[in-house]
Design brief:
Layout: H1 2-11, H2 18-35, H3 40-63, H4 76-84, H5 95-122
Helix pairs in contact: 2-3, 2-5, 4-5
């Protein structure tokens, strides 16, 4: 539990707007599914997010707060593709459909940033992030 607290402190020590971005992702992917948990989509979002959180905790414990943490969202790739097939069918007139579209949109943007971060890590930017300037 101490590792999770240390990780969350690191996230919320980052320069704005990143703590707000992470908070939005957490609301959409951890709290949002609880409102729709009876659906397969919500269960999949929660499962992918929890699997990613475990991977992030492992990476954080080994390497610190580095760009490689973007790998934690790898489970969102198949999730976003699968959910993305639902979005064109939706009218966005129910809370479930709005939430689902928001998950697809926000997670897709996050994955784009993660690809950039992980590629920078692979190319040699392996230093821990200075959280005061991140």
């Amino acid at each position: 539990m101490q590792l999770v607290i240390k990780f969350m402190k690191a996230i919320f020590s980052m320069k704005a707007p990143w703590p707000l971005w992470v908070a939005m992702l957490m609301v959409l992917n951890m709290m949002g599914p609880l409102f729709f948990i009876h659906t397969l989509e919500a269960q999949a979002v929660l499962a992918a997010t929890m699997a990613g959180a475990m991977l992030m905790m492992f990476l954080f414990s080994r390497y610190g707060f580095v760009r490689l943490l973007g790998l934690g969202h790898i489970f969102w790739v198949p999730l976003v593709i699968w959910l993305g097939f639902h979005v064109p069918e939706m009218t966005l007139d129910t809370p479930f459909e709005i939430w689902l579209a928001a998950v697809v949109g926000f997670n897709t943007l996050s994955l784009v940033m993660d690809v950039l971060d992980v590629s920078l890590y692979i190319r040699g930017d392996r230093k821990p992030t200075d959280l005061r300037t991140a």
